[in-house]
Specification:
24% helix, binds guanosine-5'-triphosphate, GTPase activity, EC 1.14.11.27, 555 residues, Spo0b-associated Gtp-binding Protein, Chain: A, elongated, G_OBG, GTPase of the mitochondrial inner membrane that associates with the large ribosomal subunit, GTP-bd, 5-stranded mixed β-sheet, alpha/beta, binds magnesium ion
């Protein structure tokens, strides 16, 4: 008599889970996938229908059971430090009208063009910051210099930085040349006083601010009377810049870019310095330097679904089964060494969507993303294996799927081990956060005493530090309070059914509250925790996952 059919999310289980079925057909595939490890090959194939299996290991690979060299590696970075620089202004021009019969015409030098602006835009479809991580400096174009015949210089080219939705932009340090010039200007104003004012508002020659007529010799330069420097000017677009220090949470797709650094103003041409006493001024001002800001970009949300599992559990195969990803799959631990983010298309606009769901803004969801991270091992929270970096990625997924290999021993124990690591990490992060809050706490400082030395970032440094200290990692929702479910994989292998039933029974008790949550955290999420049996290698059982993820994303 066949064993009783267990009920699952979709009602009944597909036939691949039945021992009689896989012994005759699927064991051949299992053997092939294990051929790359000699011990397992012997173990497995001794027990099942090995004689009928005549499969050469690397010739019959499929998309879901690829050979180890059939993969594409997508570069990935979830954090980067970047310096953005607004374009500097072009210089003003010193020129005079020259025409037939007008030998010494009036000044006609044009103003310099303003520098290009730097914009940022969060767009759907981007999943990584690796392109920006490669470029440490992003600079907008400089304005062109003014020309004769009162021709103004051309504006510098703007730069648009595109980042994935869910990026947090934090400022580390900034160098604002206009702020420095403004300060200098007001100091001069107050010190010089009226005595200087009466002297025709005379200024002095400064090489960094003035440009003189080409060919002016030093002796002539000493005799030249320079007017007072004009007050520093900011582009009117600077009013649209976010307030300093910048902290942007770009958690939505942006239709239009946002300005983060406005280009500097161009210098003034010589007609600006004409006076009744000097109709042919031989000086113009230089263009201003652009604003420089060091920014730390970090992905707050890595993906909608994060796959958590022991090494070799089948996470990358599951990612391949759900998306078009070509993540590397191999029958050994730590095949995956950096996160792979795949996109599951729900609606390709070619008929009825796979799942119809709307996000919090009411927009129809066309896809969702999955992050396949390297496997966790015992004591991963102590940075063992590939350690803390990957626990940090798990922290940034909205929903978690614990991938458990049904053929690798007690599934409940495996789940408990994973949760233990995750919750230890959560405790560690909590402690780090408390220390950080204490450090930033404002202490009462009675008037008259000098304030304690501050280690806050300096927001107006004369020169930017080329390799600034990174800011602490962002904090997000505690992992245990995220919605989660279990993907019980390799259900096509023999003797996995009892293991699955025990797992389902355990999760039922956790949901009802008769069993403590595997993380042992108080506010842990445990509303109807589901277990989905699948065979990722055959793409069976995975169809229910998109709907389940959509339901949990709406939680
Ligand atoms: N029989 C069977 N084998 C599977 C299934 N899913 C994955 N495998 C095999 O299990 C092995 C490991 O699969 P991976 O997807 O690389 O596992 P992983 O969890 O990504 O491993 P790491 O990247 O090392 O953490 C491969 O040989 C797969 O072919 C399944 O559903 N059934
Ligand atoms: Mg993998």
């Amino acid at each position: 008599m066949p064993p009783a059919r267990p009920t699952f999310l979709s009602g009944t289980l597909t036939p691949f889970l039945y021992p009689a079925f896989f012994e005759s057909r699927l064991a051949s595939v299992a053997c092939r996938s294990r051929l790359r490890k000699p011990f397992q090959w012997q173990l497995r194939c001794n027990s099942t229908a090995t004689e009928s299996v005549n499969v050469r290991p690397d010739t019959q690979s499929s998309r879901l059971d690829p050979t180890a060299d059939d993969y594409s590696l997508t570069p990935f970075a979830d954090r980067c430090i970047l310096t953005v620089e607004a374009g500097g202004g072009g210089h003003g021009c010193v020129s005079f009208l020259r025409e037939k019969y007008i030998e010494e015409g009036p000044a006609n030098g044009g103003d310099g063009g303003s520098g290009g602006n730097v914009y940022i835009q969060a767009v759907r479809g981007e999943t990584s910051l690796h392109k920006l991580a490669r470029r440490r400096l992003i600079k907008a174009g400089r304005g062109r210099n003014g020309q004769g015949k009162v021709k103004g210089g051309e504006r510098g080219t703007d730069i648009l930085i595109t980042v994935p939705v869910g990026t947090i932009v934090r400022e580390i340090q900034r160098h604002d040349p206009i702020a420095i010039m403004e300060e200098e200007h007001w100091k001069m104003e107050s010190y010089e006083g009226e005595a200087e004012e009466s002297e025709e508002g005379k200024g002095t020659y400064r090489k960094d601010r003035w440009l003189v007529y080409p060919g002016t010799v030093p002796a002539e330069l000493n005799r030249m009377k320079f007017p007072k420097l004009p007050p520093p000017r900011r582009s009117h677009l600077a009013a649209l810049e976010p307030q300093a220090p910048m902290w942007l949470d770009l958690d939505q797709h942006m239709e239009t870019p946002m300005l983060i650094a406005a280009g500097a103003m161009g210098g003034l041409g010589n007609p600006h310095f004409m006076t009744p006493f000097n109709s042919r001024p031989k000086m113009a001002t230089r263009g201003d330097e652009g604003l420089k800001i060091s920014l730390q970009l970090e992905l707050k949300i890595l993906a909608d679904l994060g796959l958590v599992g022991l090494p070799n559990a089948g996470k990358s195969t599951l990612l391949r089964a759900l998306s078009n990803s070509r993540a590397r799959v191999g029958n050994w631990a730590f095949t995956t060494l950096q996160p792979n983010v795949g996109t599951v298309v729900l609606d390709n606009h070619k008929g009825r969507p796979l799942v119809s769901s709307r996000n919090r803004n009411g927009e129809i969801r066309e896809n969702f993303t999955i992050a396949d991270v390297p496997g966790l091992i015992e004591d991963a929270h102590l940075d063992k294996g590939l350690g803390l970096g990957f626990l940090r990625h798990i922290e940034r997924a909205a929903v978690l799927a614990f991938v458990i290999d049904l053929s690798a021993g007690d599934a409940v124990e495996a789940l408990k081990l994973l949760w233990r690591e995750v919750s230890e990490y959560e405790t560690l992060r909590g402690k780090e956060l408390n220390a950080e809050t204490e450090r930033r706490m404002v202490t009462y400082n009675p008037a008259g005493r000098s304030p304690p030395p501050s280690d806050e970032p300096d927001f107006d440094t004369p020169h930017l530090d080329p390799s600034p200290t990174p800011l602490p990692f962002l904090t997000s929702t505690p992992i245990s309070s995220k919605p989660w479910f279990v993907v019980a994989t390799k259900a096509d292998l023999p003797d996995t059914q009892a293991n699955f039933e025990a797992l389902q029974d355990y999760l039922g008790r956790v949901s009802k509250g008769t069993q403590s949550h595997p993380s042992s955290k108080k506010n842990a999420w445990k509303r109807n925790v589901q277990a989905v049996p699948i065979s990722a290698i055959h793409g069976e059982g995975v169809q229910v996952i998109p709907q389940l993820v959509m339901d949990l994303l709406d939680e």
